[in-house]
Structures are given as C-alpha cells and as structure tokens.
Amino acid sequence: MGVNGASPLRSTVLGVGAYLPQRVVSNKELAARLDTSDEWITERTGIKQRHIAAEGELTSDLGVHAARRALQNAGIDATEVDLIICATSTPDETFPATATRIQARLGINDAIVFDMQAVCSGFIYALATADNFLKVGQAKTALVIGAETFSRILDWEDRGTCVLFGDGAGAVVLRAMPVNGDGRGILSTHLHADGRFHDSLYVDGGPSSTGTVGHLRMEGKEVFRHAVEKLTSVVEEALAANGMTGADIDWLVPHQANKRIIDGMARKLGLGSNRVVITVDHHANTSAASIPLALAEAVDDGRLKPGQVVLLEAIGGGLAWGASVIRW
Ligand code: UT7
User: Fold this and answer.
1) What is the pLDDT of residues 159-196, one digit of tens each?
2) Which of 4, 65, 86, 120 does the annotation list as catalytic?
3) Which one of 190, 255, 258, 283 is the catalytic residue?
4) Structural domains of the chain, ranges and CATH numbers in brackets
5) Which residues 6+ apart lie within 8 Å of 234 measured at CB?
6) Which residue, of 143, 154, 197, 269, is most buried by count of CB atoms within 10 Å of its CB?
7) What are the tens digits of pLDDT across the range 300-328?
8) Rounded Cα gap, residues 160 and 153, in angstroms
9) Is 133 a pocket residue for ligand 1 (Cβ < 6 Å)?
10) Is residue 159 within 6 Å of ligand 1 at its C-beta?
C-alpha cells in the first residue's frame, strides 16, 4: 500500500540528528559472560559492537538529544514544530507517549504529539504518517524520531537475541513545501503488515497480557526468510511507484538488523557497497532508531547530499514492513 503524488505539498527534509549512549559493548565483552564468540556474531550478523544506555538513561533522553541535533541541523527553532512522532517499542512508560516527554523537554507547548509502534519499521511508519499530515496541511513542520532502549527488553541469558540489539536515537525534521523545481522531499511511502506472523518476533509481556514488561523473543531464521521476501517486494513496489530502477538510487539506507540481509538487498538492486549506508557493525540493531541513525551518519560524513535519491526499507515485529523513496 503506497502513496505518492497528488498533493501540491511535499515533505522536505530540513535536518537530521542522532544520539548514541556513551557505553560501547563489544562482542568480546559479551563472549566473556555468554556462550558466544566475536566470530559467530560477526559472521552471522556483521555486528562488532553496540551502544547501551546508562542506568537511568531513558528512551526520551536519547530522543531529546537526537531531536535537538536535528533541529540545530535544520536551523529552526523548536517552537516551529507542530507535529512530533516518536517511533519506539521501548517507551519510558506505558503512557503517556514518550513523544510528549520529548515535547516538554524541547519547550514545545502545543503540537500534535504521539508515539508510533511498528517496532523495527517504526521509523518508516512514522515518516509516512508525518508525510501524510504535512501533505494534507494538518501540520507544517514535523519532528520524526526513532528512539529505543532495547537493552531493557532483552533476555540477557538468551544468546540468540541479546547479542543482536543496541540502544540509540535518530531524528529528522520535515517541512511541507510546495512541489518545486528541485523536486526535493519524500517521493513515496509504502507500508505493510501481516499479524499472522506475530509469533516469529514479539515481546512476551505487556500491560494487558502479563502486567510485566517482558522480553524479546525471535525465531531468527523465520524472520530472516520473511525479510528477504517482503523487503524485495516492497522495494520493487517503491521503485515502480516512482518509475525508477536500482540505477536511480544514490543511497540505500536500510534498517540495520543483519549485514547479510542488507548485502542481499543491495545485490538485488545492483548497488555496490559504496552506495549502501551500513551501521549495523557499530550500532547493532537499534530497531526504530536504526534508519535515522544511519541517515545522520551519512549526512555528517558528507556522503549523503541534497538532491540525491535515497531508498529506505525496514521489516520487524508485527510483522510490519515498509519502504520510502526520498529526494534528499
Ligand atoms: O530487526 C527485526 C528484524 N530481525 C531480523 O531481520 C533478524 C533476522 N534473522 C537473523 O538475522 C538471523 O537469523 C540471526 C542472526 C538471528 C541468526 O542467524 P542464523 O544463521 O539464522 O542462526 P540460527 O538462529 O539458525 O542459529 C544457528 C546456530 C544454532 O546452533 P545449532 O542449533 O545449529 O547447534 C544456535 O544455537 O547458532 C547458534 N547460536 C549462536 N551461537 C553462538 C545462536 N545464537 C548464537 C550466538 N553465539 N550468539
């Protein structure tokens, strides 16, 4: 299910920012207390290290830092923001939305503010939602944040999952602008979900089911299989919607779960590794934060430039998956 065109307005990226907790945990450190090895983790996933939030450091703290940097990068004042969406599966509290805590810390006293729960596809779901608000004129300037502290929902005894994830946050500032000559902005978004696959990736707790927070559970091989199939399909859908092929894409900025999945997608698109932004090696899987973290890194180091075409894609718990094409 995709949307593009139609509106005289386009959601243009004004700025991007990211934040990672200070503490870095290497594969070797994990191998010292778990039956795993640097070799296994590197070979199967591409992960070498992850950042882990400090005690008392919350998802909203990471989100605030990333948001401030995105606003600074955009060169706008926080009070210009009238829509805040925080994509997260690790909210500070069951309610209210973590986005409202971020809002208060940024000094934004009135805006449309809510969290988006689509796990690892959360950022693409939030981006699509913000894009639709902006295109119909219900908001003008959006802050879209992906912020996670997955370290809090991991079973640190389960080597099959705990080595895969990390904490972090990223954010983008979008503004509704008239479609004009340079054609910059979100060109299309494509979202899907199929709840029949719940059991392949879920958290075994929650306020209504157990009254506890629970831990992440994943059938890795099953998710891997779905990822290859569904990401291929949604990427084809996104390219077709824009009359593009892989040759038109300057940068693939994928959700960072597994380097093997990312390499497979790049091969299918005919993209060399010099056109793929990889952060999974130093961030691990930060769920909804992985794409904005990767975008911020590519902008900061000068790889991603205004006017270039960026393809985003992600899949995660739900299962929910999606893609977006942006002229940066
Ligand atoms: O972000 C949401 C989307 N998530 C994903 O896209 C994740 C998709 N799945 C994956 O990335 C991969 O399936 C994993 C990285 C999770 C696992 O890789 P795999 O090649 O599918 O391995 P596996 O789960 O089939 O496990 C292979 C072996 C097993 O041992 P046996 O049964 O063959 O004796 C596991 O017990 O590796 C063992 N194993 C480990 N060994 C050392 C599992 N975890 C570890 C570990 N260290 N950390």
Assistant:
1) 999 999 999 999 999 999 999 778 999 999 999 999 99
2) 120
3) 255
4) 3-178 (3.40.47.10), 185-327 (3.40.47.10)
5) 190, 192, 313, 321, 322, 323
6) 143
7) 999 999 999 999 999 999 999 999 999 99
8) 14
9) no
10) yes
